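Deviation from plan, reported transparently: zinc ion complex.
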Amino acid sequence: MTKLPAGVVFGAAYRDLVANCKSEKFALPAVNVVGTNSLNAVLEAAGKAQSDVIIQLSNGGARYFAGNGFPNPETAMVLGAVSAAKHTALLAEHYGICVVLHTDHANRKLLGWVDGLIAQSEAHVAACGQPLFSSHMLDLSEEPVGQNLATCRDYLTRMAKSDMSLEIELGVTGGEEDGVGSEHDDPDNPHLYTQPTDVLAAYDMLSGIGHFSVAASFGNVHGVYKPGNVRLRPEILQNSQALVQTTHSTAENPLDLVFHGGSGSDHADIEEAIRYGVFKMNIDTDTQFAFAHGVGAYVEKHPVAFQAQLDPSTGKPTKKLYDPRAWLREGEKGVVDRLQQAFEDLGSAGRSVAA
Ligand SMILES: [Zn+2]
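Because the crystal trials were delayed, the predicted structure below was used instead.
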Protein backbone atom coordinates (compact mmCIF):
# COMPACT_ATOMS: atom_id res chain seq x y z
CA MET A 1 0.00 0.00 0.00
CA THR A 2 1.04 3.63 -0.32
CA LYS A 3 2.67 4.96 2.81
CA LEU A 4 0.71 7.20 5.20
CA PRO A 5 1.97 10.20 7.13
CA ALA A 6 3.02 9.18 10.67
CA GLY A 7 0.45 10.09 13.31
CA VAL A 8 -3.18 9.26 14.11
CA VAL A 9 -5.19 7.84 11.20
CA PHE A 10 -8.85 8.50 10.47
CA GLY A 11 -11.37 7.67 7.75
CA ALA A 12 -9.87 6.45 4.47
CA ALA A 13 -6.37 6.18 5.97
CA TYR A 14 -7.74 4.00 8.78
CA ARG A 15 -9.60 1.80 6.30
CA ASP A 16 -6.42 1.42 4.20
CA LEU A 17 -4.48 0.46 7.31
CA VAL A 18 -7.04 -2.24 8.17
CA ALA A 19 -7.13 -3.56 4.60
CA ASN A 20 -3.32 -3.74 4.54
CA CYS A 21 -3.24 -5.77 7.79
CA LYS A 22 -5.72 -8.23 6.35
CA SER A 23 -4.10 -8.64 2.94
CA GLU A 24 -0.63 -8.99 4.51
CA LYS A 25 -2.03 -11.35 7.20
CA PHE A 26 -0.98 -9.61 10.37
CA ALA A 27 -2.83 -7.79 13.16
CA LEU A 28 -2.22 -4.80 15.39
CA PRO A 29 -2.35 -4.88 19.16
CA ALA A 30 -4.99 -2.60 20.70
CA VAL A 31 -3.61 -1.55 24.06
CA ASN A 32 -5.68 -0.03 26.86
CA VAL A 33 -4.10 3.04 28.45
CA VAL A 34 -5.00 4.90 31.63
CA GLY A 35 -2.58 7.81 31.71
CA THR A 36 0.41 9.37 30.01
CA ASN A 37 2.77 6.74 31.46
CA SER A 38 0.99 3.85 29.77
CA LEU A 39 0.17 5.87 26.65
CA ASN A 40 3.77 7.04 26.12
CA ALA A 41 4.99 3.49 26.72
CA VAL A 42 2.73 2.23 23.91
CA LEU A 43 4.04 4.91 21.52
CA GLU A 44 7.63 4.10 22.50
CA ALA A 45 7.04 0.37 22.05
CA ALA A 46 5.46 0.85 18.61
CA GLY A 47 8.25 3.18 17.47
CA LYS A 48 10.86 0.70 18.67
CA ALA A 49 9.20 -2.19 16.80
CA GLN A 50 8.35 -0.05 13.75
CA SER A 51 4.79 -1.31 14.06
CA ASP A 52 1.58 0.67 13.86
CA VAL A 53 -0.59 0.37 16.94
CA ILE A 54 -4.11 0.88 18.29
CA ILE A 55 -4.47 2.90 21.48
CA GLN A 56 -7.76 2.54 23.29
CA LEU A 57 -9.50 3.69 26.44
CA SER A 58 -12.16 1.95 28.45
CA ASN A 59 -14.70 4.16 30.26
CA GLY A 60 -12.75 3.67 33.49
CA GLY A 61 -9.44 4.34 31.77
CA ALA A 62 -10.82 7.54 30.27
CA ARG A 63 -12.14 8.66 33.66
CA TYR A 64 -8.76 7.91 35.24
CA PHE A 65 -7.00 9.86 32.48
CA ALA A 66 -8.91 12.98 33.54
CA GLY A 67 -7.80 12.42 37.14
CA ASN A 68 -9.29 10.05 39.66
CA GLY A 69 -10.32 13.03 41.78
CA PHE A 70 -12.07 14.85 38.93
CA PRO A 71 -15.32 16.23 40.43
CA ASN A 72 -17.83 14.76 37.94
CA PRO A 73 -17.28 11.16 36.77
CA GLU A 74 -19.54 11.49 33.69
CA THR A 75 -17.63 14.54 32.47
CA ALA A 76 -14.31 12.91 33.37
CA MET A 77 -15.12 9.92 31.15
CA VAL A 78 -15.53 12.20 28.13
CA LEU A 79 -12.79 14.75 28.84
CA GLY A 80 -10.25 12.10 29.87
CA ALA A 81 -10.68 10.38 26.50
CA VAL A 82 -10.45 13.72 24.69
CA SER A 83 -7.29 14.54 26.64
CA ALA A 84 -5.73 11.18 25.66
CA ALA A 85 -6.71 11.75 22.01
CA LYS A 86 -5.16 15.22 21.92
CA HIS A 87 -2.01 14.01 23.70
CA THR A 88 -1.66 11.22 21.13
CA ALA A 89 -2.35 13.51 18.17
CA LEU A 90 0.40 15.85 19.35
CA LEU A 91 3.07 13.19 19.92
CA ALA A 92 2.38 10.16 17.70
CA GLU A 93 3.98 11.49 14.50
CA HIS A 94 7.28 12.01 16.33
CA TYR A 95 7.47 8.28 17.08
CA GLY A 96 7.35 7.61 13.32
CA ILE A 97 4.38 5.23 13.28
CA CYS A 98 0.63 5.30 12.57
CA VAL A 99 -1.78 5.15 15.49
CA VAL A 100 -5.47 4.26 15.58
CA LEU A 101 -7.43 5.91 18.43
CA HIS A 102 -10.35 3.91 19.75
CA THR A 103 -12.63 3.51 22.77
CA ASP A 104 -13.44 0.12 24.29
CA HIS A 105 -16.71 -1.56 25.45
CA ALA A 106 -19.75 0.66 25.91
CA ASN A 107 -22.99 -1.05 26.88
CA ARG A 108 -26.38 0.70 26.93
CA LYS A 109 -25.68 2.40 30.25
CA LEU A 110 -22.55 3.92 28.72
CA LEU A 111 -24.15 5.28 25.54
CA GLY A 112 -24.07 8.76 27.07
CA TRP A 113 -20.27 8.48 27.18
CA VAL A 114 -20.12 7.62 23.48
CA ASP A 115 -22.65 10.39 22.67
CA GLY A 116 -20.38 12.87 24.45
CA LEU A 117 -17.31 11.64 22.55
CA ILE A 118 -19.06 11.79 19.17
CA ALA A 119 -20.21 15.35 19.92
CA GLN A 120 -16.57 16.27 20.73
CA SER A 121 -15.43 14.76 17.42
CA GLU A 122 -18.18 16.55 15.49
CA ALA A 123 -17.01 19.86 16.96
CA HIS A 124 -13.41 18.93 16.07
CA VAL A 125 -14.41 18.09 12.49
CA ALA A 126 -16.12 21.48 12.20
CA ALA A 127 -13.04 23.27 13.55
CA CYS A 128 -10.12 21.17 12.19
CA GLY A 129 -11.57 18.84 9.54
CA GLN A 130 -10.86 15.64 11.49
CA PRO A 131 -12.52 13.72 14.31
CA LEU A 132 -10.71 12.97 17.59
CA PHE A 133 -11.11 9.19 17.42
CA SER A 134 -10.70 6.75 14.53
CA SER A 135 -13.43 4.52 15.94
CA HIS A 136 -15.61 3.72 18.95
CA MET A 137 -17.00 0.45 20.22
CA LEU A 138 -20.55 -0.36 21.24
CA ASP A 139 -21.04 -3.57 23.19
CA LEU A 140 -24.74 -4.40 23.25
CA SER A 141 -24.03 -8.11 23.00
CA GLU A 142 -26.16 -8.95 26.04
CA GLU A 143 -29.26 -7.60 24.30
CA PRO A 144 -31.33 -9.35 21.60
CA VAL A 145 -29.39 -9.15 18.34
CA GLY A 146 -32.08 -7.12 16.52
CA GLN A 147 -32.01 -4.45 19.21
CA ASN A 148 -28.18 -4.52 19.31
CA LEU A 149 -27.93 -3.98 15.55
CA ALA A 150 -30.65 -1.32 15.37
CA THR A 151 -28.75 0.81 17.87
CA CYS A 152 -25.44 0.17 16.07
CA ARG A 153 -27.09 1.30 12.79
CA ASP A 154 -28.19 4.59 14.41
CA TYR A 155 -24.70 5.24 15.81
CA LEU A 156 -22.88 4.35 12.61
CA THR A 157 -25.22 6.59 10.62
CA ARG A 158 -24.19 9.53 12.81
CA MET A 159 -20.50 8.59 13.08
CA ALA A 160 -20.01 7.98 9.34
CA LYS A 161 -20.71 11.69 8.76
CA SER A 162 -17.51 12.40 10.73
CA ASP A 163 -15.67 9.57 8.94
CA MET A 164 -15.46 7.45 12.09
CA SER A 165 -15.71 3.67 12.27
CA LEU A 166 -17.78 1.55 14.66
CA GLU A 167 -16.77 -1.69 16.37
CA ILE A 168 -19.72 -3.84 17.39
CA GLU A 169 -19.89 -7.00 19.50
CA LEU A 170 -21.86 -10.11 18.61
CA GLY A 171 -21.82 -12.92 21.12
CA VAL A 172 -20.50 -12.34 24.59
CA THR A 173 -16.79 -12.10 25.39
CA GLY A 174 -16.35 -13.96 28.64
CA GLY A 175 -14.96 -12.34 31.75
CA GLU A 176 -15.41 -8.70 32.56
CA GLU A 177 -13.80 -5.51 31.31
CA ASP A 178 -14.18 -2.44 33.45
CA GLY A 179 -17.67 -3.34 34.62
CA VAL A 180 -18.88 -4.24 31.12
CA GLY A 181 -19.25 -7.89 30.23
CA SER A 182 -20.57 -11.03 31.68
CA GLU A 183 -19.86 -13.70 34.19
CA HIS A 184 -20.27 -16.46 31.59
CA ASP A 185 -16.91 -18.11 32.06
CA ASP A 186 -18.06 -21.66 31.40
CA PRO A 187 -16.41 -22.79 28.13
CA ASP A 188 -19.51 -24.78 27.18
CA ASN A 189 -21.81 -21.75 27.35
CA PRO A 190 -23.28 -21.18 23.84
CA HIS A 191 -23.49 -17.39 24.49
CA LEU A 192 -19.68 -17.33 24.29
CA TYR A 193 -19.86 -18.22 20.61
CA THR A 194 -21.08 -15.83 17.91
CA GLN A 195 -23.64 -17.13 15.42
CA PRO A 196 -22.53 -16.62 11.78
CA THR A 197 -26.16 -15.75 10.88
CA ASP A 198 -25.95 -12.81 13.31
CA VAL A 199 -22.73 -11.65 11.64
CA LEU A 200 -24.48 -11.81 8.26
CA ALA A 201 -27.37 -9.74 9.68
CA ALA A 202 -24.83 -7.15 10.86
CA TYR A 203 -23.21 -7.02 7.43
CA ASP A 204 -26.60 -6.64 5.75
CA MET A 205 -27.58 -3.77 8.04
CA LEU A 206 -24.30 -1.84 8.38
CA SER A 207 -22.13 -2.32 5.31
CA GLY A 208 -24.06 0.24 3.24
CA ILE A 209 -23.78 2.90 5.96
CA GLY A 210 -20.12 3.12 6.87
CA HIS A 211 -17.07 1.24 8.06
CA PHE A 212 -17.55 -1.19 10.92
CA SER A 213 -15.66 -4.02 12.56
CA VAL A 214 -16.97 -6.99 14.50
CA ALA A 215 -15.80 -8.34 17.83
CA ALA A 216 -16.95 -11.89 17.35
CA SER A 217 -16.86 -14.30 20.25
CA PHE A 218 -15.15 -17.59 19.62
CA GLY A 219 -14.62 -18.63 23.22
CA ASN A 220 -12.29 -15.74 24.04
CA VAL A 221 -12.32 -14.41 27.58
CA HIS A 222 -11.07 -11.17 29.13
CA GLY A 223 -8.23 -11.74 31.57
CA VAL A 224 -5.78 -14.57 32.00
CA TYR A 225 -7.03 -17.94 33.15
CA LYS A 226 -5.56 -21.32 33.89
CA PRO A 227 -4.85 -23.32 30.71
CA GLY A 228 -7.86 -25.45 29.81
CA ASN A 229 -10.44 -22.97 31.11
CA VAL A 230 -10.69 -21.27 27.73
CA ARG A 231 -11.56 -23.19 24.59
CA LEU A 232 -11.09 -21.11 21.46
CA ARG A 233 -12.99 -22.02 18.30
CA PRO A 234 -11.54 -19.79 15.55
CA GLU A 235 -13.54 -21.75 12.95
CA ILE A 236 -16.47 -19.56 14.05
CA LEU A 237 -14.64 -16.63 12.47
CA GLN A 238 -14.03 -18.64 9.31
CA ASN A 239 -17.69 -19.71 9.11
CA SER A 240 -18.87 -16.11 9.55
CA GLN A 241 -16.58 -14.88 6.77
CA ALA A 242 -17.67 -17.71 4.48
CA LEU A 243 -21.38 -17.03 5.02
CA VAL A 244 -21.03 -13.32 4.14
CA GLN A 245 -18.73 -14.10 1.22
CA THR A 246 -21.09 -16.61 -0.41
CA THR A 247 -24.27 -14.62 0.33
CA HIS A 248 -22.91 -11.37 -1.11
CA SER A 249 -20.31 -12.75 -3.58
CA THR A 250 -17.56 -10.70 -1.95
CA ALA A 251 -13.80 -11.25 -1.97
CA GLU A 252 -12.26 -13.46 0.72
CA ASN A 253 -12.61 -12.35 4.37
CA PRO A 254 -15.08 -9.49 3.80
CA LEU A 255 -15.41 -8.76 7.54
CA ASP A 256 -12.91 -6.82 9.63
CA LEU A 257 -12.72 -8.87 12.80
CA VAL A 258 -11.48 -8.05 16.30
CA PHE A 259 -10.09 -10.46 18.89
CA HIS A 260 -10.97 -9.45 22.46
CA GLY A 261 -9.28 -11.02 25.45
CA GLY A 262 -5.95 -11.52 23.67
CA SER A 263 -3.87 -11.64 26.87
CA GLY A 264 -2.48 -15.09 27.52
CA SER A 265 -3.48 -16.49 24.09
CA ASP A 266 -1.57 -19.25 22.30
CA HIS A 267 0.49 -18.32 19.26
CA ALA A 268 -1.32 -20.92 17.12
CA ASP A 269 -4.77 -19.52 18.03
CA ILE A 270 -3.60 -16.00 17.21
CA GLU A 271 -2.25 -17.08 13.82
CA GLU A 272 -5.46 -18.90 12.97
CA ALA A 273 -7.60 -15.90 13.96
CA ILE A 274 -5.48 -13.63 11.74
CA ARG A 275 -5.94 -16.02 8.82
CA TYR A 276 -9.70 -15.59 9.23
CA GLY A 277 -9.61 -11.80 9.04
CA VAL A 278 -8.70 -10.54 12.51
CA PHE A 279 -6.81 -7.22 12.20
CA LYS A 280 -6.97 -6.09 15.86
CA MET A 281 -6.20 -7.97 19.05
CA ASN A 282 -6.94 -6.35 22.37
CA ILE A 283 -4.36 -6.60 25.10
CA ASP A 284 -4.83 -5.15 28.57
CA THR A 285 -4.32 -7.71 31.31
CA ASP A 286 -0.78 -8.60 30.19
CA THR A 287 0.35 -4.97 29.84
CA GLN A 288 -1.19 -4.10 33.23
CA PHE A 289 0.85 -6.91 34.74
CA ALA A 290 4.00 -5.83 32.87
CA PHE A 291 3.69 -2.31 34.31
CA ALA A 292 3.08 -3.61 37.84
CA HIS A 293 5.88 -6.16 37.56
CA GLY A 294 8.39 -3.48 36.54
CA VAL A 295 7.43 -1.20 39.42
CA GLY A 296 7.25 -4.11 41.87
CA ALA A 297 10.77 -5.28 41.05
CA TYR A 298 12.08 -1.74 41.56
CA VAL A 299 10.37 -1.37 44.96
CA GLU A 300 11.76 -4.73 46.03
CA LYS A 301 15.26 -3.64 45.01
CA HIS A 302 15.08 -0.26 46.78
CA PRO A 303 12.70 -0.75 49.73
CA VAL A 304 14.35 1.90 51.91
CA ALA A 305 13.63 4.68 49.39
CA PHE A 306 9.91 4.04 49.86
CA GLN A 307 10.20 4.27 53.67
CA ALA A 308 12.60 7.09 54.42
CA GLN A 309 14.04 10.20 52.81
CA LEU A 310 17.43 9.45 54.40
CA ASP A 311 18.80 5.91 54.33
CA PRO A 312 19.04 4.97 58.06
CA SER A 313 22.15 2.82 57.50
CA THR A 314 24.16 5.34 55.45
CA GLY A 315 22.49 8.68 56.21
CA LYS A 316 22.40 9.43 52.49
CA PRO A 317 19.34 11.01 50.80
CA THR A 318 17.17 8.54 48.89
CA LYS A 319 15.64 11.27 46.72
CA LYS A 320 16.98 9.97 43.41
CA LEU A 321 15.46 6.56 44.12
CA TYR A 322 11.96 7.70 45.11
CA ASP A 323 11.67 10.29 42.34
CA PRO A 324 8.51 9.07 40.53
CA ARG A 325 10.38 9.24 37.22
CA ALA A 326 12.68 6.45 38.44
CA TRP A 327 10.04 3.89 39.40
CA LEU A 328 7.27 4.80 36.95
CA ARG A 329 9.88 4.41 34.21
CA GLU A 330 10.33 0.78 35.28
CA GLY A 331 6.59 0.24 34.68
CA GLU A 332 6.86 1.86 31.25
CA LYS A 333 9.83 -0.35 30.38
CA GLY A 334 7.80 -3.40 31.38
CA VAL A 335 5.05 -2.38 28.93
CA VAL A 336 7.55 -1.62 26.15
CA ASP A 337 9.12 -5.10 26.55
CA ARG A 338 5.80 -6.95 26.72
CA LEU A 339 4.56 -5.19 23.60
CA GLN A 340 7.63 -6.23 21.59
CA GLN A 341 6.38 -9.78 22.09
CA ALA A 342 2.85 -8.76 21.05
CA PHE A 343 4.13 -7.17 17.82
CA GLU A 344 6.08 -10.36 17.06
CA ASP A 345 3.10 -12.61 17.87
CA LEU A 346 0.79 -10.56 15.65
CA GLY A 347 3.32 -10.23 12.83
CA SER A 348 3.20 -6.42 12.82
CA ALA A 349 6.83 -5.74 13.82
CA GLY A 350 8.73 -3.86 11.10
CA ARG A 351 5.57 -3.35 9.03
CA SER A 352 4.50 0.18 9.88
CA VAL A 353 2.93 1.92 6.88
CA ALA A 354 4.16 5.32 8.11
CA ALA A 355 6.21 7.20 5.54
ZN1 LIG B 1 -13.07 -6.62 25.24
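Residues 105, 173, 177, 222, 260, 282 surround zinc ion (CB under 6 Å). We consider this an acceptable substitute for the interim report.
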